[in-house]
C-alpha cells in the first residue's frame, strides 16, 4: 500500500460511502482531521502515562473507540459497542471516589501528565463540536451513543487529569478571581 495517492492534490477528498470528491475544508474532513489529531495526541499522552498503567490503558481503549468514531463519520457502518457510554461513566465515577471532591474550577497543570490530559480534554471538546457540525450540515446522522460518548470523553479526560495530579501528590490550584 502506498503512503500517498496524489488524489487529494487538488484540495479534495472522498468519504467511504460516496464516490464524489469534497473539499478538504468542508465539515466532514474537518471533523475527521480533529478526530485524527486527538487520537494522535492521546498516543503521545499515553507514552507519558506509562508510569500510571491504569491511565495508559484507559487512553489506549479510548484510542480504539476514536478509530470507530472516525470510521463511522467517514461512512462506515461501524458502531461503538452498546455500553460504551456507561463504561466511561463507570470509570469517571471510580476516579471520583479516589480523588478529593471538586471545589470549583481548577487551573490546568500540576504535573506534566495532568497538563497533557487537560489539553486532550480541550481537543475532545473540539472533536465534539466538529462532529456536531457534520450532523447539523446534514452530512451524517450521528448515532446517539456516539454523540453521548463524545460528550463524556472530555469528562473522562478531566477526571484522568485530576487523577494524575492526585497520584503524584500534587494539589489542585483554583483560580483566585
In short:
The protein has 177 residues and is mainly alpha-helical. The chain has helices spanning 27-48, 53-74, 84-98, 112-136, 144-168, and strands spanning 12-13, 22-23.
**Strand pairing plus helix content: what structural class?**
mainly alpha
What is the arithmetic mean of pLDDT?
92
* Number of helices, where a helix is a run of at least 4 consecutive DSSP H or I residues: 5
- Identify the strand order in the major beta sheet: 1-2
- Unreliable stretches covering 5 or more consecutive residues: none
Q: Could you state the order of secondary-structure elements as H and E?
A: EEHHHHH
CATH architecture classification: Up-down Bundle
CATH class: Mainly Alpha
CATH overall fold name: Hypothetical Protein Ta1238, Chain: A
Q: What is the CATH superfamily?
A: Cobalamin adenosyltransferase-like
Tell me the β content: under 5%
Blueprint (SSEs and pairs):
Layout: E1 12-13, E2 22-23, H1 27-48, H2 53-74, H3 84-98, H4 112-136, H5 144-168
Antiparallel strand pairs: 1-2
Write structural notes for this entry.
This protein has helices spanning 27-48, 53-74, 84-98, 112-136, 144-168; strands spanning 12-13, 22-23. It has 177 residues and is an all-alpha fold. The chain has a single domain, classed as Hypothetical Protein Ta1238, Chain: A, CATH 1.20.1200.10. It has a two-stranded antiparallel ribbon with strand order 1-2.
Keywords summarizing the entry:
Hypothetical Protein Ta1238, Chain: A; 5 helices; 2 strands; mainly alpha; elongated; two-stranded antiparallel ribbon; 177 residues
Amino acid at each position: 500500500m502506498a503512503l500517498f495517492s496524489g488524489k487529494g492534490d487538488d484540495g479534495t477528498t472522498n468519504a467511504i460511502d460516496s464516490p464524489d470528491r469534497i473539499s478538504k475544508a468542508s465539515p466532514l474532513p474537518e471533523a475527521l482531521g480533529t478526530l485524527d489529531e486527538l487520537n494522535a495526541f492521546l498516543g503521545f499522552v499515553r507514552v507519558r502515562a506509562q508510569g500510571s498503567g491504569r491511565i495508559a490503558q484507559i487512553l489506549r481503549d479510548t484510542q480504539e473507540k476514536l478509530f470507530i468514531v472516525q470510521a463511522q463519520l467517514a461512512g462506515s457502518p461501524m458502531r461503538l459497542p452498546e455500553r460504551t457510554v456507561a463504561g466511561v461513566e463507570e470509570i469517571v465515577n471510580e476516579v471520583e471516589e479516589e480523588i478529593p471532591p471538586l471545589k470549583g474550577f481548577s487551573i490546568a497543570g500540576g504535573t506534566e501528565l495532568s497538563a497533557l490530559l487537560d489539553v486532550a480534554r480541550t481537543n475532545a471538546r473540539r472533536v465534539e463540536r466538529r462532529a456536531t457540525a457534520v450532523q447539523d450540515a446534514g452530512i451524517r446522522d450521528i448515532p446517539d451513543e456516539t454523540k453521548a460518548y463524545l460528550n463524556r470523553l472530555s469528562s473522562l479526560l478531566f477526571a484522568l487529569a485530576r487523577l494524575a495530579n492526585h497520584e503524584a501528590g500534587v494539589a489542585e490550584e483554583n483560580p483566585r478571581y
